[in-house]
Specification:
23% strand; UCP005522; single chain; CP_ATPgrasp_2; alpha+beta; four-stranded antiparallel sheet; ATP-dep_Glu-Cys_Ligase-2; Circularly permuted type 2 ATP-grasp protein; Rossmann fold; five-stranded mixed sheet
Amino acid sequence: MNRGSVKFDEMHDAEGGVREAYSGYCEWFHEQDTKSLKRKDAEADENFRRTGITFNVYGEDEAEERLIPFDMVPRIITANEWRKLTRGIEQRVSALNSFLYDLYHRQEIIRAGRIPERLLRNNEAFLQNMVGFTPPGGIYTHIVGIDLVRTGPDEFFVLEDNARTPSGVSYMLQNRETMMSMFPELFTRVGVETVSNYPRRLARSLAACAPQSTEGKPNVAVLTPGIYNSAYFEHAFLADQMGAELVEASDLRVVDGKVQMRCTAGYQPIDVLYRRVDDDYLDPLTFNPDSVLGIPGIMDVYRAGNITIANAPGTGVSDDKAVYSFMPEIVEFYTGEKPLLPNVETWRCADRESLKYVLDNLAELVVKEVHGSGGYGMLIGPTASRREIADFRKKLEAHPENYIAQPTLSLSTCPIFTKKGLAPRHVDLRPFVLVSPNGIDITPGGLTRVALEKGSLVVNSSQGGGTKDTWVLKD
């Protein structure tokens, strides 16, 4: 695994030549007028602002809405590279779904000693209400985002699994739409796989997961916490693009054993609810009694088999970074195969020997909370101050079970467009996966997040990162 200062540049090889994936794009780019490109860059920002493509930041004094920076240089993946990634993603997502089914039934993987029982005992995302219950179609993870990082020509690693409520797909779609509107001629020169049919694929996949009791065409709705949620733009965008209803808790109630939506003619049953509300707020009669974001009694309807909730309650247990560290064992246990996409090397701080190693090497490692997300609650050793390292050491010593550690990877770089020309910046990739009884469907591309600051490894939008259009080339 590459570490340290050696970086893999996805556009240029070590001699400065253009790699195969970028050959068509670079030919086009060098034909362009720089002033025209700068105008296009400004137009893209204005387009995103006008469209309302923002996200909310909580706990800060400044305005809560921010524009997500967009970079107009695409991240490009060859067809052959994508085929390899697809096989690995399919294998991993299949194992994740089997793992969740097993956890909520016989727990064979724990009985076999392949993962410790404490992973469930200490995991707040494990829901006793789901024990013994099988969701419609046996699907737990209807929508999955697998975060990938690259360190070399054929070196891709899984950084995180997002099986609870993965976000960001609306930015993937808007990035592509923006690129096609700005540079239509570019897409006639370079054959790129489409991503624009994702909402249609999502609607089809969700409908296929409807309960057996559904009569006629399934009614699909998107449940949002409301306009103040950080991902509200995405909730509204996806509902509109799918032709589904966007609903809040106040629009729904349980009537005659079904979750029903208020409409002009009374109430209409909902068969599939794509919820963007966390488990704890989903049903005040089952979980947090103070929640105003959920539907009282929905869990009773769910367990009676009269509604599909996507993703299933309790899937968040697989997002835990301590569980992530066991994914090689999980993949092999349920598929009988070695993982095609490896994990990043991970030290579990709950283990005494691992903790000693981490404490001895804090300045060189990345340390993360097992339940953390969004780039918060982590230490990046090489860029941290002595004070930050000392403070984090105290946290680790007090609650080692709350943390895992990983090497500081030399993430691959892709160029971004700056006032001075192209400049390399670190990137990651989140492909989006749909799962139904009909199979696993992976959209060719995904959301590329980019660290806009020179040398930064943090790509999260909440931490100053931006996004790029992701191209998968046609054969």
